[in-house]
Amino acid sequence: MKRKLICLLLLLLTLTPAAQAASPAVRGANALYTLGLLDGVGQHSDGSPIYALDRSLTRQEAVVLLVRLLGQEQEALSAQYPNPFTDTAPWAAPYAALAAQKGYLQGIGGGLLGAQAPMTEQAWLTMLLRALGYSNASYDDPWTQAKAIGLAEAPAEGFTRAGAVTLSMTALGLPMNGSSDTLLYRLVQADAVTEQEVRQAGMTDALSRRPLSAREISARCASAVVFLQMYANETDLETDSPCATASGFFIAADGVLLTNYHAVGRTMFAFATTIDGSRYQVRDVLFADQERDVAVLRLNPAELGTGEITASFPCLPMRSAQTVANGDIVYAIGSPLGLTNSISDGIVANRSRLAEQATGSPDPYIQVTAAISSGSSGGVLLNEFGEAIGITTATFAYGQNLNLAVPLDLAMSVDLSAAGTPYEEAFEAEPSPYADIAMYEAYPDVPDFGALVGADLRSSAETEDGAVYLYDAAAASEDALAEYYQAMEAWGFTYHFNREQLQMVFVSQALGLSVLGQEVSIDLEGQQIRCYQIRILESIVDTTALRSDLFPWALP
């Protein structure tokens, strides 16, 4: 009865300004107390508990809290397991006995638990991970696993009862390993905690991880996704002629973002435009891995044009590929074809797809059905809870809805506080393989099709709106056509496909040019000769109805 009165008092206190201003640790301690998971070390004069949040959590206090979080308090109190430890207080002895019986912890030798010794954050994290079903959690490095599931980001300075409370509150709202049930939900199912106590503690949201609708995903996550423009050199920057565009997304409030390596490699300058139109220069490269196609960048927080410093950017929580399962609902947000902040949905087709032959990386990708088009590279793949699980990276041309995303595990290990390398210097040692390719004399910014694919020029002519070139197609292999496609992208052209006319379409907004390519048949001395026709237009063609998921060498 006394406990219920105290719970009621705590609920009344939450209506007062003082309680509203309480620290997260105090609010968490109140909630854990209401759930019957945390004891105070005494009482205030008004009967409310004293939490002593600023002192260390002792090992015997940690054992009691762990057993309660596991929903095994009643078993501990009724089973009467033998207690192998001689230094535990009577109130902690049953809990220590159960923990020893089930192998949750070991003593320090000599029949001692080290009951009054402080519990370390390392040990407590390991215990929480095992409570969440990660039986193989590593004591040597629990932070990697904890970060992967959203339990903890990094080691804290000093570990107190406040830290234990905060981590325990986070753990209660996380799903059990291999299940969508949260730890708190399991406690309710085991009758270790009542639904009334959950409501009194204000933790009904932690009973389940409510999936978000597409509208909610867009509303919550789109502001963390940016449109990237890259420039190969100072001349391109001065003429505002980006050599490539892509997407990226913030993973830290100080302007750290993720994108694909292939989007930024071989460039000297990069700029990010946020959803509200603000533009920032990319200042540093914190990490770059060409094989895994991952780049971690940091912006200069000074907005271009105004010079105003942005104190905080909206960012997305990251989750490991270990949390992904086949059939999970996913969403992709990026800038396909420069259409910023476009959202698409789908499912995980294969959580660990090996695609080395297509991508060059021996590591697995997340295969999804969510649409990914040119310009979406570097965009975010989200789970149904609005958490980033991958970087949208590639698509298979020969098929439908066969798209790949790089898991975030590698990026999650990067030190986001590192100084990094100035962007202008990060990629200069990797010259573009297309730096010396031949260009059309009349159009010095357009790669010469014939020179790239090894096809002989049969004829050429100027037109009212550009020029047209006709090449012998016999010598052009699929590999050569793929090289042409890659060269056009390297020089800032975006690709589309006109299915009605079986025509590949390249567009450069910066140059104001369109390049149309298609296979044609001409009559030469009574014989039909297969040729490639390349037509350059001094205008931008309408590509809104065209597809970008078919590659030029996949002509039907």
Helix/strand layout:
Layout: H1 2-13, H2 17-20, H3 24-34, E1 42-43, E2 49-50, H4 59-69, H5 73-79, H6 93-101, H7 121-131, H8 142-149, H9 161-172, H10 183-189, H11 195-200, H12 214-221, E3 225-231, H13 234-238, E4 244-252, E5 256-259, H14 261-264, E6 269-273, E7 279-289, E8 294-299, E9 329-334, E10 342-353, H15 356-359, E11 365-368, E12 379-383, E13 388-395, E14 403-407, H16 409-412, E15 421-422, H17 423-426, H18 449-453, E16 457-463, E17 466-472, H19 478-490, E18 494-498, E19 503-508, E20 513-524, E21 527-537
Antiparallel strand pairs: 1-2, 3-4, 3-6, 4-5, 5-8, 6-7, 7-8, 7-15, 9-10, 9-12, 10-11, 11-14, 12-13, 13-14, 16-17, 17-21, 18-19, 19-20, 20-21
Helix pairs in contact: 3-9, 4-6, 5-6, 7-8, 7-9
Task: Please give a structural write-up.
The protein is α+β, with helices and mostly antiparallel strands. It folds into 3 domains: 2-57 and 118-207, no CATH class; 211-430, Thrombin, subunit H (Beta Barrel); 449-554, no CATH class. Helices cover 26% and strands 24% of the residues. The protein contains 19 helices and 21 strands. A 6-stranded antiparallel barrel has the order 3-4-5-8-7-6. Strands 9-10-11-14-13-12 form a 6-stranded antiparallel barrel. The chain has a 6-stranded antiparallel β-sheet with strand order 16-17-21-20-19-18, with helices on one face. It is elongated, with a radius of gyration of 30 Å. Mean pLDDT is 85; it is low at 1-21.
